[in-house]
Write a structure and sequence with these properties.
The protein is an alpha/beta fold and about 450 residues long. Helices cover about 35% and strands about 20% of the residues. The protein has helices spanning about 35-50, 75-90, 100-105, 105-110, 125-135, 185-190, 200-210, 235-245, 265-270, 290-295, 300-315, 330-345, 375-395, and strands spanning about 5, 25-30, 55, 65-70, 95-100, 115-120, 145-150, 170-175, 215-220, 250-255, 280-285, 320-325, 350-355, 400-410, 415-420, 425-430, 440.
Length: about 450
């Protein structure tokens, strides 16, 4: 197989519309982060506006698009499994793979049986144009190359997006890329440098989403606290601009680095009418020595200060924490120190990731202890157990408190579900007229 690497497809607004030569059934599959879901939704919207149709569940598609994740080796494995599964389910479809895995390992994907085209991270935003060319012949022969990628670190373009598949909850993309280059992480290589739109652009898209029926906006990005690098604005100014929008809705801030989550931001959320008392903060390790190895830009003391300040001004706030286990250099002593620190924090939930060796990362060049895979798995289980205890304790602390729940459409065994402003999941008897509405309740998690 000959693989030809090209630079960008010809630039064009990926949301522009053209009359299709013929209607095709399109199927999207998205793996990974909230950012991927927002982008897939925007890309699908552009194709639907062009006149194509979304393939129904179980229906054969003409084109299948898989938007991938590559944060760990496990994510890559899931990507490959999904590619094979989609090909089996749609044997005659044109199969396009894009996203982070496609950006980092295009050759590997191109050699997977059944993959027709690989579009890099920037090239996926030319998907509308790419499909337009395929329409001309409804054939794989419409393109002479199999792989389209470019040097993502050289890309300055920002493509806005927000999800529309769930009318209740909307993931709003406000930032992309990262300049941090932590020693274990490939995200800067997959997503490029930190960049963002203007505040006015974000506010416009937020208003569009709300006009479309969304009741909850989730600000999403790779490193959203770094917002403003492209436009000489500040993240706190974005929050203030969104706060000024009128209406009955709420906003959640997705993962924000502790060194960028200032007391000013925390205090702003505490007094906000729209922003929910819900924070997600990456810790990655509770050992200062391991944080240095990882190239993180804070100490555990700073992290503890951020958590303490949140709890001081919002005692009932939900705090989720990203934790990684088993990185190189994580000795047993450092690990026990890490666990003790986690135990001491008044947080609500841990999102645990097991370290996996990633090509082109600095950690592979370090002459450090390699934690055996079985020990990594043991440490992961230990943190998951701590997380379960902390989540249960948080839920019990909310018993009898009043909360505002946003009811969702999902129905299970005659019941419907929703989350309060501080992320307590509750349920009630299913009533269709409650979907996408707020209701004041007394929390009962038993």
């Amino acid at each position: 197989m000959q693989i030809i690497l090209r630079k960008n497809l010809r630039k064009r607004d990926f949301c522009s519309t053209f009359a299709p030569v013929f209607e095709m059934k399109i199927a999207f599959t998205t793996l990974g982060c909230k950012l991927n879901f927002a982008e897939s939704s925007a890309l699908a919207k552009a194709l639907l506006e062009r006149g194509h149709k979304r393939a129904k569940q179980g229906e054969q598609a003409d084109i299948c698009i898989i938007n991938t994740c590559s944060v760990t080796d496990a994510a890559d494995h899931k990507d490959r499994q999904m590619i094979h599964r989609i090909r089996r389910q749609n044997p005659n479809a044109i199969l396009i793979v894009t996203g982070c895995y496609a950006q980092l390992k295009p050759d590997e994907i191109a050699h997977i049986e059944g993959v027709d085209y690989v579009l890099g991270q920037n090239e996926k935003f030319n998907l509308n144009e790419f499909v337009q060319r395929l329409e001309m012949s409804k054939s794989r022969a419409a393109e002479t190359s199999k792989v389209y990628t470019s040097a993502i670190r050289e890309v300055d373009d920002f493509y806005g997006a927000y999800s529309k598949d769930d009318r209740t909850r909307c993931f709003l993309k406000v930032q992309d890329g990262c300049n941090y280059f932590c020693s274990y992480c490939t995200i800067p290589l997959a997503r490029g440098k930190s960049r963002n739109p203007s505040i006015s652009t974000v506010v416009k898209q937020a208003q569009e989403a709300l006009n479309g029926g969304a009741k909850e906006l989730i600000l999403s990005g790779v490193n959203i606290g770094d917002f403003g690098r492209s436009t000489n604005e500040r993240f706190i100014d974005l929050l203030r601009a969104l706060e000024a929008i009128e209406g009955d809705f709420r906003i959640r801030i997705s993962s924000c680095e502790p060194n960028l989550l200032s007391d000013e931001i925390i205090d702003f959320v505490a007094h906000s009418r729209h922003f929910a008392p819900h924070f997600h903060i990456p810790l990655q390790s509770g050992s200062n020595e391991v944080l240095k190895i990882m190239g993180r830009r804070y100490t555990r003391e700073l992290f503890a200060e951020r958590v303490a300040h949140i709890k001081a001004v919002m005692p009932d706030a939900f705090i989720g924490v990203d934790c990684m286990v088993g990185v190189r250099g994580e000795t047993e002593e450092y690990w026990r120190d890490y666990v003790a620190f986690i135990e001491s924090l008044p947080v609500s939930q841990l999102h645990v990731f097991t370290y996996s060796e990633r090509a082109n990362t600095r950690m592979l060049e370090m002459d450090l202890l390699v934690v055996p895979q079985k020990e990594r798995e043991h440490r992961s289980k230990e943190l998951h157990a701590i997380s379960a205890r902390k989540t249960e304790a948080f839920y019990r602390s909310q018993e009898g408190h009043r909360g505002i729940v946003l009811w969702e459409a999902k129905r299970e065994e005659g019941r419907m579900f929703g989350f309060t402003e501080n992320y307590v999941r509750v349920s009630c008897e299913y009533k269709k007229d409650k979907i996408n509405t707020f209701e004041s309740i007394i929390i009962n998690t038993l």
